[in-house]
């Protein structure tokens, strides 16, 4: 395990198993629909790569890069679009693929933004959910794991852009972000 971690919260195997379940569920729900999976960069990169490989039905993928944090551990609510989608989502079935829903501010902003482009439907798949920290009302449609209020890293999730490459999800030692 990495020295900066308090403990491992979700192993690679646990993540793989759950992602496969989500993929099966999503595949059933979107049969015959024009599905576009939208990866929210950078945090959802591994989730997106693994999830889409568990969805055998036709789909297209697109990416959106946003920033809501700066270097801290709390969402500011101010979301910046760093890179927008390539293709139009008008009349298409859009599935947002997110790493984690914390306060919900980022997702709320994203939902409003994408909804205004008139998709046929708009749903959310998130790997992690921290329900205790929700500040605005957003409901996720596919949720990998509900986790306690601890700052986690790995499998795409970062602190100060580090730890995204860990193949598991771990709880970061508080002294790393309080020093
Ligand atoms: P929200 O706007 O507060 O819901 O924050 C959502 C974003 O904050 C996520 O997409 C993550 O990038 C980041 N985030 C929230 N909690 C964590 C965490 O525990 N570890 C790493 N990033 C997090
Ligand atoms: Mg993120």
Could you walk me through the main structural features you see in this protein, from its secondary elements to its overall organization?
This protein has one domain (13-149): Rossmann fold, CATH 3.40.50.2020. It is built from four helices and nine strands. The protein has helices at 12-29, 45-52, 105-115, 174-178; strands at 5-10, 35-41, 60-67, 80-83, 93-101, 121-129, 142-146, 152-153, 169-172. The strands form two sheets. Strands 4-3-2-5-6-7 form a six-stranded mixed sheet, with helices on both faces. Strands 1-9-8 form a three-stranded antiparallel sheet. α1 (12-29) crosses α2 (45-52). The longest helix has 18 residues, at 12-29. The radius of gyration is 16 Å and the shape is globular. The two termini are 21 Å apart. Magnesium ion binds at residues 43, 99.
Brief overview:
The protein has 179 residues and is of the alpha/beta class.
